[in-house]
Design goal:
8 strands; globular; disordered C terminus
């Protein structure tokens, strides 16, 4: 049995996104080199620590059409009508995103697999950006803990829904969860020395972004930061009213 540095059993983990998600890594499931995964990102660093430090497998899955897997259309409603283009185009080819410099020249649809082609039961924990895996599929694997993290953290973050066990709220308050439900987990999840020195030295990690020298424009952040989103929620009514469990 593999163990952590603290001598605890190492959990088998998977990190999943849809082929319509507008951020993070664009590599095949066979890629396990952390630096290669990191520097394929469309923009943000994201939870690269899952792969680099915890040995998680990364998957891009094909879009499913159950109501819960369509939640991405309400997360960023102004741009979501273009996101299906990401199956065949890179992010810089999407209207309004021409200034972006994605790390991979390959459209993420090239690496997408069917969600039901993966044995999710081989994992102890599966983490999804938005709701990549439909409820029916999640319920086939009762021994696996399933968590989702809404990409922009603007809805469905206070209660686990859609048959999932945990919702990750993109916060890092130092609170350790004692059970299922809402759990603190930041979008940018990594250790102080991740990635390791020498990995992709021509590109650097600045905050939650990837830079190439000084050429990367200051507007490279795809959407408002978590701090700005939280401030906006404190001064204005929610953009999306809370809806019953299992509905968007």
């Amino acid at each position: 049995m593999k163990v952590t540095e603290e001598g605890l059993p190492r959990l088998r983990m998977a990190f999943v996104k849809q082929d319509v998600y507008q951020d993070l890594y664009v590599v095949p499931a066979s890629e396990h080199t952390p630096s290669a995964i990191l520097f394929s990102s469309m923009g943000r660093v994201g939870p690269i620590g899952l792969m680099a430090d915890l040995g998680a497998d990364f998957y891009i899955v094909e879009e499913e059409f159950e109501i819960e897997t369509q939640i991405y259309r309400k997360v960023v409603p102004g741009l979501s009508r273009y996101f299906r283009l990401l199956k065949t185009e890179t992010l810089d080819k999407i209207p309004g995103q021409e200034f972006k410099r994605p790390g991979s020249p390959v459209p993420q649809g090239e690496y997408a697999v069917r969600a039901d082609s993966v044995d999710w039961g081989q994992y102890d924990v599966v983490i999804s950006v938005n709701v990549s895996l439909p409820t029916g599929l999640v319920r086939r694997y009762p021994q696996t803990l399933f968590a989702y993290m809404i990409g922009e953290a603007n809805m469905a973050t206070h209660k686990a829904r859609f048959g999932y066990d945990v919702t990750l709220n993109q916060m890092a308050r130092g609170i350790v969860a004692e059970g299922r439900g809402e759990v603190d987990f930041p979008y940018t999840f990594l250790r102080g020395d991740t990635p390791r020195p020498g990995a992709g030295a021509e590109r650097r990690v600045h905050g939650n972004k990837l830079d190439e020298g000084e050429a990367r424009p200051p507007c490279a952040r795809p959407f408002p930061s978590a701090r700005r989103r939280r401030a906006a929620r404190q001064t204005s009514p929610p953009a999306h009213p809370r809806e019953p469990d299992g509905h968007l």
